[in-house]
Each structure stands twice: as structure tokens, then as C-alpha cells.
Amino acid sequence: MAEVAKPAPSKNSFQDKDKPTEVRLSNIVAAKAVGDAIRTSLGPRGMDKMIQTGNGEVVITNDGATILKHMSVLHPAAKMLVDLSAAQDVEAGDGTTSVVVLCSSLLAAAEKMLNKGIHPTTIAESFQRAAQKSVEFLAEMSTPIDLSDRESLLRAASTSLNSKIVSQYSSLLAPIAVDAVTRVIDPAVTDNVNIKDIRVVKKVGGTIDDTELVDGLVLNQNVVKSAGGPTRMEKAKIGLIQFQLSPPKPDMENQIVVNDYRQMDKILKEERQYLLNMCKKIKKSGCNVLLIQKSILRDAVNDLSLHFLAKLKIMVVKDVERDEIEFIAKSLGCKPVADVESFTDDKLGYADLIEETESAGSKIVKVTGMKHAGKTVSVLCRGANSLVLEESHRSLHDALCVVRCLVKKKALIAGGGAPEIEVSQKLMDYAKTLKGMEQYCFQAFAEALEVIPTTLAENAGLNPISIVTELRNRHAHGEKTAGINVKKGTITNILEENVIQPLLVSTSAMELAAETVKMILKIDDLVQSR
Questions:
Q1: pLDDT score at 442
Q2: What angle, 0 to 180 degrees and rounded to 10, lies between the N-to-C axes of helices 96-116 and 503-522?
Q3: Which residues on neighbouring strands pair with residue 292, listed in sequence order?
Q4: For this structure, is 89 an active site residue?
Q5: Sorted alphabetically, which PANTHER family does this protein's record hold (predicted)?
Q6: How big is the CA angle at 370 (ends 365 and 375), to the nearest 5 degrees?
């Protein structure tokens, strides 16, 4: 290993000490290993990974960020690639695999240059400049879109879904993603979407076909039926409470010994009176649906209070999770109430209908027709088993993020390896105008970009060399949108196949990959701290 790493000792080449070279090489090898592990899951013909987590759960996924998140990576440089993929997930949401593959390819290119004796800082900075240039080229290629152009949004969302298990359902999931995002935002003014406003509720049962977009709110919890309360309520006034409808309990454990049965009656009577007063206060405010937050200290409701609420015709849903409270309050336009004294009608939310529906063996509560609704929307995600369900949720999240990217940066580019080859050629031409070492670095960067089309061709079982050569040829003759058509196994105009992606996904991938490469190249020593 050490023999290979030493550059030829020429007069003017950069001569490094042994250790930094070793460290750099080990970092590059580790990071490339991560890239190779994830490479096979790129593109519409990419394979899936089955991950067994520490507690015995099994995750089957195609999403780069998820795979890396579950992988136990020990090498610190390889961890940087995991963070890179997470950063891409936050920034763009899609293209998490491509960004890691691109980064490992750039590192391979950097390794070759280091062996030629070019200084690492020169390489790193040239790469960053090349990445900036690439982003400019991409922006020139892109076509601006309008958010009212639903067709383009749908095509971008279904391209994102094509590489997932749920690809045959893309005609169903893509419209759901597009509609969900367009409902949450005001297309004229916004330039970002809060994905938290779109709540995905997962229920095992049925098939992916049963996935639906609910204009309203979907609750995972069931209606409490034990006391015979109503399960359907029209013109609902909904109260969201964070206190318990059960007798108060002291903080310390204690026992009361009662030796007189009259006292006993009195205690029971007090309890009834206490609960009755609470229920009456709730009824007085005009509330007829109660959502009760899960309680840690004691039962949220007991049988007696349920009986009173049923008598008063109030529908009860208990065990609402803490982290759902904010979303529910925003959706219904109600305010969470922490104490029965402050329970008044201005804290309530209004809805036309709240009912418990049963589909494919599991029950959910749907709230529709909100009056003062915030802009939120719920997606009910179904799947035959938990593995499919999780994966379909992840794919839906990617599709939502793609639409979000188009809201952030309203421009589209072709997919299928077309933009990478195009940028690669433009960089090659641009490199010829530069001088010195930088020219070499730009050429290496341009060659490294070809990893994406190469990998796409490999994963589809085509001959990567002939395909990429043909692609270069087409692009050199000015066919800017020629890309790999995986279904037919040839090169076609990729726009006719409707394979398009948001500009933001590619630009952020290039910027982030170049940054990570710069970070890895600038490291020249590994020191263990105590």
C-alpha cells in the first residue's frame, strides 16, 4: 500500500510526508466503500437493501438516506458520507443515493490526481469551482415551470417514484403528493413548504391501492365505545383537552383506611360529584367531541366519566399522542385546554362531520369539513404488511419532497443521466480555457460526473461502456435531452418518456458532494483523543 501511495519523486511535484498520504488514502478508500455499497440501489432498476436492525426489526428500502442511516459505519470518513446523504435528504429530499455515488466517484478522481502529485488543496478548491460552474450549466439547461402546471409536477413526482418498490402505483401516489403539497401552500406567494403540515398516517391492512388523501384530519386512535357513546357526530364542536377525567390522585402513594361504611359512601359520592361537575362543564361549553391526550400519571378517563359523557352524547377519542397535539390544534383550529376551568367555547374547533370508518379491517377516525382550518392535510397510507407500508411511506415522502423542491426552485431538468453528461461535456470545453493544474482538475471532475449514467446503465443490465459512449456522442451532436431509457435499453430523448427531475435535486447534490470531497481531502491526520 505504502509503495503505491508515494508519488513519483519529480523535482517540482508536491512531495508529502508518508503519514498524511496514508491517512488520505484510507479516508478515500473508506468513503468509496460506502459509495459502492449503495451504488446498486440507484435508478429505476436499482435493487433494494434488506437491513436487520439491532433489535431484530427488518427494514427493506431503496432510499439512500435510510440505508445509510441504518448502516453501522465505523470509519470517521465514511460517516461523513452518511451525513452527506442526510443533508441531501433535508435540503432536497430526493437524490440521496445519487449524491453519495457522485461523491465516491469524485474521491476516486481525486485519488488519481493525488498519485500524480497534485496538491490536495488545489484539487479540493478546483472541485468546488467546478461544482459551482456545473450548477450554472444546470441552471442554463433547466426549463422554468409554473406551480399551476399540474402535469409537470406529476411527471416529476412519478419519476421520483419510479425507482421505488411502489413504482406501479405511481399513477396513484404522484397525484396524492402533488395535491397534498398544493393544498398546504398558497401557490402565488410561497417559496417553501413545511412537510410537517402533511401528516401521513400509516395503517396496516388493504393494499397500496387503498392509500388516499383526506382533506381534513385522520386520527390513528379509535373512538371509545365501552360506555355506549356516539361514534358519529355531525356539526361537531371539538375540544382538545390535556387534563384527565378521572378522580384526582395525590403525588405520593398512600392508603386510606375507612372504618365506617357511611364514610365509604361519601367518598364514592364525592368522586361521582367531581366527575359529574367536570363533564357538565364540558357539555356547557357546547362541546360534543372530546380528544383526550395520553396521560402518563394516571388513566386519562375512567368508566364512570365515560358513562357520564355517553349520557351527555359526547364522543370520546382518547390516547392522543403528545406530538400530535400541535398538528391537530392547527388542523381543527382549536386550542389545547390544560384545565377544566378554562374550558370555554372559544377554545373549540368546528367540523361538519367526524366519524369512525372501517376499511380493510382497521378503524380510523376521520374529521372532514373544518371551519377554521389551518392549511394542513392528511394522507392515509395503507399496505399489506409493515415492510411494504414503511417503504411506501418513504417513497411518498420522497415524492412530497420533489414537489417541495419545485416550490422552492421553480425549474425542471431532464433525468436519466442526461444532465450529468451534458454538464460533463460543457465542463470539458470550459477546462480547455483554463491554465495549469486547474485544467486537470476540471477534466477529472467532468469525467467523475459520468458515474451516474454509468451506474444507471449497469443497474439496468446494459453495457455501460457502449451506452455512455453513445450518450456522449448524442450530446456532442447537440441532443441535450438524450438520456438512458431503462425500459427499452437504449438512448432516447428522455423528455418523451416523461423522466424529469427538479433542478434543486441535482444542484444541491453537486454542491454537497463537492463540499464533502473538499472536507475529506483537507484531512491529513487522524488523532485519537482520549
A1: 92
A2: 40
A3: 241
A4: no
A5: CHAPERONIN (PTHR11353)
A6: 100
Rounded mean pLDDT of 44-54? 87
SS (H, E, C) 148-164: CCHHHHHHHHHHHHCCC
Name the strand (E) or helix (H) holding 108: helix 96-116
Task: Give catalytic status of residue 210 as yes or no.
Answer: no
Instruction: Based on the residue annotation, tell me whether 94 is a catalytic residue of this protein.
Output: no
pLDDT for 357-378, tens place per residue?
Answer: 887 778 888 888 887 666 888 8
pLDDT at 111: 92
Position 16 pLDDT exceeds 60? no
Q: Would you call 22 helix, strand, or coil by DSSP?
A: helix
What cell was used for 402?
A: 420533489
Given a cut of 60, whether residue 11 has pLDDT beyond it is: no
The Cα–Cα gap between 307 and 315 comes to 11
How far is Cα 159 from Cα 501, in angstroms, rounded to an integer? 7
pLDDT digits (tens, 9 = 90+) for 103-134: 999 999 999 999 988 999 999 999 999 999 99
Instruction: With CA atoms as reference, report the closest residue to 170 among 182, 160, 161, 183.
Output: 161
Q: Are 107 and 32 in contact (CB under 8 A)?
A: yes
Catalytic residue among 21, 96, 455, 481: 96
Cα–Cα distances (Å) from 275 to 245, 336, 340, 341, 342, in that order, read 7, 20, 11, 13, 16
Q: What is the mean pLDDT of residues 161-168?
A: 84
Q: What angle do CA 307, 310, 316 make, to 5 degrees?
A: 105
- Residue reference for cell 453537486: 510
Instruction: List the catalytic residue out of 398, 454, 481, 507.
Output: 398
Per annotation, catalytic residue among 63, 89, 94, 197: 63
